[in-house]
Amino acid sequence: MLAVVLSLLVFVGVTWAQYSPDWTSLDSRPLPSWYDDAKVGIFIHWGVFSVPAFGSEWFWWHWQGQKPPDQKCVSFMKQNYPPGFSYPEFAPDFHAQSFDPEKWADLFQASGAKYVVLTAKHHEGFTNWGSAHSWNWNSVDTGPHRDLVGDLGEAVRRRSLHYGLYNSLYEWFHPLYLKDKQNGFKTQEFVMNKLLPELRDMILRYRPEVIWSDGDWEAPDTYWNSTGFLAWLYNESPVKDTVVTNDRWGAGCACKHGGYYNCRDKYTPGQLPKHKWEKCTSVDTLSWGYRRNMEISELMDAPSIIEDLVSTVALGGNYLLNVGPTPYGTIPAVFQERLRGVGAWLKVNGEAIYASKPWRVQHENSTATVWYTAKDNVVFAVITGKSVSIDLQLLAPRPSATTKVTLLGSPLPLNWFPSDPSGITVVLPKQYFIGHPQAFTLKLEGFQ
């Protein structure tokens, strides 16, 4: 009888929710496999904050939110703008007139990234699409007069890259949020009338495969109604089978609840975590958004980025690298150079990165700095740093009768011999002993 009832319910369109709105259930959802296979993503912080382009994307808060205000921001405004100038007056100068989503997507593809995450809305509340819930404070009503989220998404997907969106839960100066905050977050006017309707509309319209949540820390997840939203996202939304989410869903949730863990900006665990994680970091070490006053010494160079990427993947993480475009819609040439440098390295060494898994040993320092990854029955040893001997000793691998060592990018096998008391010693080609690239990869077959 029960089977008959269930069949009738399915026939008439009644379905059972797989995930209930509680963390025990939501945290049991398997992470869609595409995300762990992708390994490398590009993060983009772009908004009205790109116009003042001073200090960081937190300019508005540092200027008029925090007490006391940042005097550097105050001085910047006095020197460059008339008295009484308000932050919203920056929006008309967010023209994005040179924004070419096809060029951006070509660059991201050339970087070797497999997914792209754009800021749909940062803490300033400005949406990079025509949100009906952000009237006159969005990229269609003012500034670019263009759907930036939609235009980039179409270009990215044409290159078979996954597309995700960053969304800040809170907004520094939204009156409904400030009212809820004053009420000790016992009311939810902002959440019910602004945040959730806007999030739902964004997902239905753009179908992002990553929801990169942020701005959660001032209130508990119960205020944000995070479990209810995620239950809808995982059970009913058009991306329920492919979407991945991070862990920023309320005070105390980071590194505890969600799809994958960010834990904190530029998080580096130091050892293999038990849960899938992602390191988000920025080419500009002082800001996520574009800065007009950035110096070359404040930027990560390509070798540093590659080593950071390799260590992250060896420890089971994904690597999300950020760039900040200008208000004109261009990506600064120095950022382009960094991304293309990473892409050139991945073109040769990507076999050790994409769809790889952590090996039984993730890292060692012998005659070089070595990071290990694995795929099927193959082990990869990525050698980073500048101090490398021509006789490279690897302590962890255990050779067998079928052992073979090759250098990615070269078809010829390398000579090797067992080391005492364990491991192997690989004889490197001379060009890798003198003036070798910052990182290169040995492919180890027939090892244990």
UniProtKB/TrEMBL annotation:
EC id: 3.2.1.51
Keyword terms: Glycoprotein, Glycosidase, Hydrolase, Lipid metabolism, Lysosome, Signal
GO cellular component: lysosome
Marked site (May be important for catalysis) residue numbers: 280
Entry's localization field: Lysosome
Keyword Glycoprotein: yes
PROSITE patterns reported in the protein's UniProt record: ALPHA_L_FUCOSIDASE
GO biological process: fucose metabolic process; glycoside catabolic process; lipid metabolic process
Signal peptide: 1-17
Major location (coarse): other
Catalytic activity: an alpha-L-fucoside + H2O = L-fucose + an alcohol; a neolactoside IV(2)-alpha-Fuc-nLc4Cer(d18:1(4E)) + H2O = a neolactoside nLc4Cer(d18:1(4E)) + L-fucose; a neolactoside IV(2)-alpha-Fuc-nLc4Cer(d18:0) + H2O = a neolactoside nLc4Cer(d18:0) + L-fucose
Taxonomic superkingdom: Eukaryota
Domain Glycoside hydrolase family 29 N-terminal: 17-351
Domain Alpha-L-fucosidase C-terminal: 362-445
Entry's Gene Ontology molecular function annotations: alpha-L-fucosidase activity
InterPro entries assigned: FUC_metazoa-typ, Fucosidase_C, GH, Glyco_hydro_29, Glyco_hydro_29_CS, Glyco_hydro_29_N, Glyco_hydro_b
Gene3D superfamilies, alphabetized: Glycosidases, Golgi alpha-mannosidase II
Function description: Alpha-L-fucosidase is responsible for hydrolyzing the alpha-1,6-linked fucose joined to the reducing-end N-acetylglucosamine of the carbohydrate moieties of glycoproteins.
Family affiliation: Belongs to the glycosyl hydrolase 29 family.
Subunit comment: Homotetramer.
Name used for this protein in its record: Alpha-L-fucosidase
Species in which this protein is naturally found: Gouania willdenowi
